[in-house]
Amino acid sequence: MNRKNIIEQAIKGIDLISKLGLDADIIGFKSADKVYDLHAEIPVNTEVISLYKSDDEYIHFLRHDAAHVLAQGLTHIFPNIEFGKQFFKDTNVFGFDVFFPEHKFTKDDFPKIEKAMKDVVAKSDDIIRHVWSKEKALQYFPNDQFKQDIISNAPKNTIMLYEHGDYIDICGGPRGMNNSHVGNHFVLLDVQDSEWMFNSSKKMQRIICACFRNESEMKDFLMEYK
């Protein structure tokens, strides 16, 4: 199987699959220095190889999507919750910093949060990528202090966001095409104290989670974690 392609004209990954009749199981493409999800446009004259769920890079897709499934699930339980930045550690572990001072999260919250995450996955919402100007992004999140900060301090003049169902957030990707691929192989691990951008006056809580390709990987991880 030839996994290499040289891009003759700029094209989105999903359109490249259709144009060349490539394998529908491809989850993205990789050049010498960058990973492209299927939403992203691959520049002209770029040599890329196809990526599959069996490749090491897939965990980066899975973690990003699972992190935003976590965030979307949290909004269904705590509608006024605000989000800081994502946190990635090791291969499978990730977290999301949240601002919700009226509630101190504990492990007792984990069952209902995991259920909310599974409900999000079950809806099988398509994931849609947006690239907005800073001005549009600031206008879209007028009352979100953290997104206002992220957008205002972003080095580029455009902001990348991904939308699924009733949730939209800033994210640099890579992402999948539909939340269904996240599956139910995830587990909440811990809650830690955090703060916003090293500002000790803005206390946050970091919810730590891990996600996996399959049940076997999750069981092996949990045996070592305990």
Describe this structure in words.
InterPro entries: Thr/Ala-tRNA-synth_IIc_edit. One of its GO terms (molecular function) is nucleotide binding. Keywords: Protein biosynthesis. With 226 residues, this protein is an alpha+beta fold. The chain folds into two domains: 4-51, no CATH class; 58-225, Threonyl-trna Synthetase, Chain A, domain 2 (Threonyl-tRNA Synthetase, Chain A, domain 2, 2-Layer Sandwich). Helix content is 30%, strand content 33%. The protein has six helices and 13 strands. Helix 2 packs across helix 3. The radius of gyration is 18 Å and the shape is globular.
Q: Structural class, judged by helices and strands?
A: alpha+beta
Helix content: 25-40%
Under CATH, the topology of the largest domain is which? Threonyl-tRNA Synthetase, Chain A, domain 2
CATH superfamily of the largest domain: Threonyl-trna Synthetase, Chain A, domain 2
Q: Any low-confidence stretches, pLDDT <50, length ≥5?
A: none
CATH first level of the largest domain: which class? Alpha Beta
The separation of the N and C termini measures 41 Å
The largest beta-sheet arranges its strands as: 1-6-3-4
Radius of gyration: 18 Å
Please state roughly what percent of the residues sit in beta strands, choosing from under 5%, 5-15%, 15-25%, 25-35%, 35-45% or over 45%: 25-35%
Task: Describe the global form.
Answer: globular
H/E element sequence: EEHEEEEHEEHEHHEEEEH
In total, the number of strands is: 13
